[in-house]
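Sequence and structure are no longer studied apart. As an example, we show below a sequence and the tokens encoding its fold:
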Amino acid sequence: MEGIFTYIGAIVGHGQMLFVVHLILVAAIIILLARMAMANLRAVPNGTQNVMEAFLGGVIAMGKDVIGEEKARRYLPLVATIGLFVLINNLIGIIPGFESPTSNINVTLVLAVVVFFYYNYEGVKAQGALPYVKNFVHLGDMHPAAKFAMSLLMYPIEFVSHLSRIVSLSFRLFGNIKGDDLFLWVILMLAPWFMPMMPMVLLTFMAFLQTFVFMILTYVYLAGAVAVDEGH
């Protein structure tokens, strides 16, 4: 945000380059965590390996309730990578002097587009293009003329509904993190020398919550694309 001091902004300015450098920093942190977790693998994990295994286990447990354990493990690389990326992006903005890249709509929009194209690709791959589109609407047993008329109404609505997921995914994350950054900015202006602990705890909780919401919605969209009821 223009006018807010950041360490990186003091060097590169407060333009798009600020978010690019923050994204590079987040990527470096994620790579470092992965290397630390895999540096000395043990049957009984400890340290970073323990944290990362707990995170991956939580992602699988989350997906198991939505799409089943087999598919939850299948889509674990996508959901866990997005989750870890979003979480680190969210958390880094809580540290004074840094800014959350997820408070930029360009970042959240790219994430939403990736999820959108991936779940549609998986749906077409699992069902075939025509059956996948056909399953957007289930009209049941109706008179052919009435079914055709309802199809003309429902299919455009469903297509718009699917496209709106890009907007909902991106703007939900962007809006919440942008609001958190503004809230933290105001708090630090009012009490610059005394770190307000309760707001920091609240913002940390919100960072985890928004990550959870993004991951669970990714699993929900994947489930809707590939988990077709036997009756259809």
